Amino acid sequence: MIKGIIMVFIGVFVAPLLGGLIAGVDRRLTAWFQSRYGPPVWQPFFDVIKLFGKERMVVNRWLVFCAHVYITAAMLSVVLFFLQSDLLLILFVQAVGAIFLVIGALSTTSPYSQLGANRELIQILTYEPLIILAFVGIYLVTGSFRISEILVQTKPLLVSLPLLYIALCYALTIKLRKSPFDFSTSHHAHQELVKGFLTEYSGPYLALVEIGHWYEVVLILGLCSLFWATSWIGIIALVGVTYFCEILIDNVTARLTWRWMLGYVWPMGLAMGFVNLIWLHGR
Amino acid sequence: MKEVISTTKGTVVSKTVDMKKDGYRFVTMSCVELDADTVDILYHFDRDLHLKHLRLTIQKKEAVPSVSLVYFAAFLVENEIQDQFGIRFDGLVLDYERTLYLEKEAPDAPYCRISVSRDVKSGED
Amino acid sequence: MARTIIPFGPQHQVFPEPIHLKLVLEDEIVKEVVPALGYVHRGLEMLADVRDFHQMIQICERVCGICSTIHAQCYCQGIEELMGIEIPDRARFLRVIWAEIHRVQSHLLWLGLFADAFGFESLFMQCWKIREKIMDINEATGGNRVNPSINIIGGVKRDMNPDMAQWVLTQLDLVEKEVNHLEKVLLNDYTVKKRTVGKGVLTREKAMELGAVGPTLRGSGVEQDIRQIGYAAYGELAHRPVVGIDGDAYSRNRVRFLETLQAIALVREAVSKLPAGDISVKVKGKPEGEVVTRVEQPRGELMYYIKGNGGKNLDRLRIRTPTFANIPPLLSMLPGIELADVPVIVLSIDPCISCTER
Amino acid sequence: MLNTILFVLILGPFIAGALCFIIRSGHVRSFIVLAMGCLIATASIILFIKGPFSHTPPPLLGIPTHFLVLWGDDLLLFVMLYFAFKHGHLFTKILIIFQIVCLDYFELFMVDHTENFPLFFADNLSLIMVLIISIVGSLICVFAIPYMNKHEEHQGLKKSRQPKFFAFLVVIIGAMNGLVLSNNIIFMYMFFEITTLGSFMLISHDQNETAINNAVRALWMNCVAGAAFIIAMIWAYVIQGTVDAQKLIQAGHMGGIMLTPLALLCFAAMVKAAQIPFQSWLLGAMVAPTPTSALLHSSTMVKAGVYIALRFAPGYAGTFLSQSLAVSGAFAFLATSAMAIRESNGKKVLAYSTIGNLGLIFACAGINTPEAITAGILLIIFHAFSKALLFLCVGDIEQHIGSRDIEVMRGLYARMPRTTLIAVLGIVTMMLPPFGVLLSKWMAIEAASKHLFVILPLAVGSAMMVVYWARWAGILLSAPHGLKVEPEKQGLLTRFPLLVLVWGAVVLSLCAPLVYSKLVVPILSAPSFSIRAGIFENPTGTFLFYPVMLILALGFIYAVYAAKKARKARLSGPYLCGAQTTDPESFEGPMKKPVAVLSGAIYFESIFGNQKLTVWVNIFGGMLLALLVGGSL
Amino acid sequence: MDILKKLTRKSRIKSPWLLHFDCGSCNGCDIEVLACLTPVYDIERFGIINVGNPKHADLLLVTGTVNHRNKKVLVNLAEQMPEPKIVVALGSCGLSGGVFREAYNVIGGVDKIIPVDVYVPGCPPKPEAIIDGVVTGLEKFSKKKDG
Amino acid sequence: MFDMTPNILRNFFHKSSTRLYPKETRQAFGNARGELYNEIEACIFCRTCARKCPSQCITVDTKEATWQCDPFVCVYCGVCVENCPKKCLHQKNDYRKPVTDKEIIFMKGETKKKKCEGDPQET
Lengths: 283, 125, 358, 633, 147, 123
Ligand code: SF4
Ligand code: SF4
Ligand code: SF4
Ligand code: SF4
Ligand code: SF4
Ligand code: SF4
Ligand code: SF4
Ligand code: SF4
Description:
The complex is a heterohexamer of chains A (283), B (125), C (358), D (633), E (147) and F (123).
Chain A: H1 2-33, H2 43-52, E1 57-58, H3 61-82, H4 87-106, H5 111-142, H6 147-151, H7 157-160, H8 162-175, H9 203-225, H10 232-252, H11 258-282
Chain E: H1 2-14, E1 18-22, H2 28-37, E2 59-63, H3 70-79, E3 86-90, H4 91-96, E4 118-120, H5 127-143
Parallel strand pairs in E: 1-2, 2-3, 3-4
Chain F: H1 5-12, E1 36-38, H2 48-52, E2 58-61, E3 66-69, H3 79-83, E4 89-91, E5 105-108
The structure holds iron/sulfur cluster (8 copies).
């Protein structure tokens, strides 16, 4: 019980801090890759606090509603993760948030927001099956969808699920909105949709979305960490290397288009996942 | 400026068509105010780095046949001349109706200024 | 099919300059596009009425900040032709040097913005990082990063002593080295190719018919470059226009990339052949008559029509900038492409609105 | 008592239908429909409370029941034959004549009518079906009363066709009740055929060319199902010598020979449920007035298919048939989701979604583990409510705005806030946790995890489903900025069904654990989940049903509060690159003309809109069905 | 409460998101603004992100002369920025119309249309000057009242 | 694919090229055209600068011996400096600092007794 409460606490409070810090480190590293000095690592926190202090400005009150639902769902999904709950449940709860965020963006009459939201839906469409396949792979190895069952494994999952891990990394890249998949919105926003589906979220509501994003980043990195959950070193190494690669890929690729994503990543990711599953099945 | 061919309102389109047939690229048009009533419109063409011009002298009030159907590229500069000189072009493929650059608040046909400013200034020179 | 109508610009992140496109989309495919201009129109040609023909140099430099030197050069060249002035050889070479430095600057700037248009942020950063060296050259030689302001009627304002020239060359060597590092990225990278190959195709015939100029024209396989006329000192320097074949965004990209290297080579050659002597001649009299003069600017053919009346104010100054000529071809490239490619294709003509509208 | 209830549930609607047809007064008709609705809803609840039974009613009017059935069947088939001749459809004619011949031969010369077994049998599955049919079906009929008045008004009909319409509408309810309660497969067949005729009549209601074409298509496809059914029936009889469904199911366990008739039954079921490549009849049904579509889709007709599959599921557990059923169901789910994603016609989206969900239920039936069966049954329940609700919403919306196109519904919230909110809620219950549909889907995915060829389409299909639902919900809400919204007027008979359905959907979801433990568990061979404190758990996974629901509900409430508080926030127009005019929804375009912004969703025309793709999907679907039948020969 | 306010203020200074609007500039100033984002100057050091969306921006950088067409855009953009915000005018054009101020389609500097907080002279101002201008603007930020 | 990687890694393993302005400044180039200033004692108020200025931002009052320049209009082109007959007008190498309020450079010198030949009013 106590452990449970601690886990909830970590999920609710520590996770966003971690997420913010990761974002800060990300920006710093990105800057280094670009031969820049970069902002301080706690820059994301400044951003969010500042946003909370801005004037409230809305186009539509649905947006406010949706931003709150988003952060609730994001938080809940992380809490469920730390409670070592069912992977599919976590994914579904996470999807509530993601979908409400999109509905919020769709609820405005802003064309940029609308287009961004449509693209975000395409991103959801792309990553969700990949994640489900990864979970199925985990299930085939451990016999359960529960995280607690994964943690008692003695062999890292990565050994039996290498291809699914790559598929999951696709999902991770999409979820992190990194190049080449940053088309529904992007952090530095030099793109044709300006801020995409985040265009109309502003001030405190944008701050909520940002924090929600941190939760999600922690969640998805947490999912990655499951693939080497046998030791702390494994977790740190795996997540560290994965994230480093993400930043690297972000910096060595151009943004591509959603048509490309559907036509390339989807078949690739699904095929890889499927091959991995068949292989597991055959054993 | 060498090779300037004079044209009239009636022949300008057919001469432009000839230019196109001869493989000339449409460079642009220039409009120059001559006096209070007339302007010169110069059509510049290029073939292999060699320039050729048509000169059309018209009254400001007259409408000029557009060559934008011959050279689509002309639509932009013709709109510009409409804006700046208040001259009308007939048969523009895309007519901005004198809103290409200028808003209502801006002066009307700002490039037609001889009657106003140049008279005063010429005394100084 | 659901239609989307969006305003693309005037304030839009991917365009550094205000231009407005009314885009009609279906499934993010552009069905219709109508441009709106006038957000940067100043009416500076009319300033000839209130500024004398010397002062107009500074105005012409500010037609556009990206190729200011070249504008001034074209203008001075026109006035010199009207007044029958022969400028000293050294001045002719110096003009080439500065113009080509400017071209390197402009192309690097463009390569960066182009990369930005397809979301390659680090490439943008890299190009602009390299470009800073050119900006330093501008400031060191001309006194300002953007407007070196070296052209005057009758020659150039500033000389380049051997030390300075040497320093410029070493800087350019560094630039060249770094630009070469980017060759593979710009011309081979999978993602870059995905975003550029086959995008915004302009056939050779279309390019000619619609009056495309500069790299946009050369990207479609037409070997035409105003520098071939041999104005300034170009007649005495070895250069051949860089041409592409496919007429797509990739091809234009390639042309500009190679032109960057070509420009550096031209500077080298010009410095090595730099004759001794005066840098300017004294100017007497006032311009009279009309003239059309052209130079090759980074974006293509720049044309000035100048009419003088023997007074200190010009009768008419008309500037036809390359982007002005490239807009009709651009309009023909847009329908049928994806929304995501709109910035890529618009950028691929290297648009400069400030000079288009003046 | 039982006799009365069965009479009310099965024959009641027939009588009501006859009355509707004969008494041509609008008011009386409304009364009849309302009364019948109340009656069968009550009757279904009473039956439900009484629990499972098996029963043989006394012969009606002293005529042996099998005679009634034979006459009924023949009459039915000849009516159908008449229509087949009227519309000159050769294939239908052949099918129907084939059925007549088979049936008569079977009934007159083969079947031993003295066999003694309960004519009616009901376990919880049947009872659940009866509840859904009677309640949801009645609500739809009630909704149809004002709807059809308006519909005819819009069409400017001189002579009302409502009598016939309502007659068939209610008859279908009776037939469905009969179908799910019968234990004699000959009965089943008859009711099965009644629904075929009923749907034909309802689809052709508008009597225009498309309506008739689509109705004919529905007829021939359903006749294919009927023919398959009849072959299955005869085949099974030849092998087992019985028409007792329960016996047949048990016989299925024994040997492979029963597999073929079962496969044919499944095939019939899949055609009835409009699975690929037979989806077109259900899509064509969308031209009919909305109550038809709602009735056909949510609670009846198509559910007849999945009911049969689930009913006979124990009979083919663990066989190749089961596997291929799972795969073709999953494939239908994937393919229809992909088709729905490119659709902007609201009713078609609903139709595809229905077919998809039915596919999912087939997949569950095919997986055939207790978890899967649980998922399938729960899906039937939750889907019925949400889908009926959505259909009625679309109908209501269509009558207001004159279009069923999703794009035209953009910003509907500003015009019809009530209906919009109900519709959005309906959509949310279709796709998000903690609502029942998603709970069932969770179970389905967990159950399908071992079946690679099922899980892959499921994973991809559900993601696509999310896309089209979320897109629709967002579009409904995208109201212009700063608008004062006034709740629109809704007639009582429109509002009542909507409210009952939306509450039904929500409350039923809230009670999911109860529904599971009380209703579903008794049907299962072994309980699939343990439930503690609202947590579904089994070795495969855990669904923290109540905890998740609680926290999401809290978040929801807070979000509503925050949105209320945002009333004070500054209103600002959407971002339009700085080009907005005084009207924040339009921008100054070229030539200084104001242009209203327009947003259209992405419909993937170039990707899923491909005609070739559809053809391939149909071919592949057909091959899967062929595999299903052929593989069990 | 007080500490929260202080934190907000500090964050505001640490995270000024930027919107750049080219209001009829010759590009000289624009490219210098862009140059500020690039490695040699890297204003992301100050937490500045070029957001390109008025709704997210705190800092409006305006370059170039105001004309009759773009003034509406300028007003629209400024209006869509939530308080508190700072407007910085760049280059002679933005300050007064510069060399073009006598041209017929030039209204003049930005401050004729919207209030300007910081003026950065130059043609174009060097990136260093732009950074100085932003820093000066941030000082003003701490004095602005909460949004 | 990933052709950018070497460049990126090179950046990563080298010091960033950022000049940490304002902490770290760089000596301006000797030629740089910055802020204008007038050695007013040497100025003869001949108005050449005012006449030649393309931006028309200098106002010289010969009688009152004042020289003023609007730094918000000046484009720092250096034309005035080049044309000043007394070479009293200079440009610093550093740019003019941003300000929060409008300003004018105003300088007052002594009225010169000896007037220059030629009419300053001309042209
Ligand atoms: S996501 Fe964007 S803002 Fe965040 S660190 Fe990366 S580039 Fe910077
Ligand atoms: S094309 Fe025109 S605006 Fe663009 S850089 Fe060149 S001169 Fe300037
Ligand atoms: S809008 Fe609805 S009610 Fe009216 S005619 Fe059409 S389907 Fe019937
Ligand atoms: S201030 Fe100078 S560089 Fe800036 S826009 Fe104006 S003219 Fe161009
Ligand atoms: S003169 Fe000044 S305002 Fe104009 S462009 Fe140059 S720096 Fe900018
Ligand atoms: S040109 Fe020189 S001397 Fe003459 S007024 Fe100007 S600053 Fe003074
Ligand atoms: S520097 Fe140029 S703009 Fe400034 S005062 Fe001197 S001449 Fe005028
Ligand atoms: S003549 Fe006098 S006023 Fe004219 S430039 Fe010489 S000193 Fe100045």
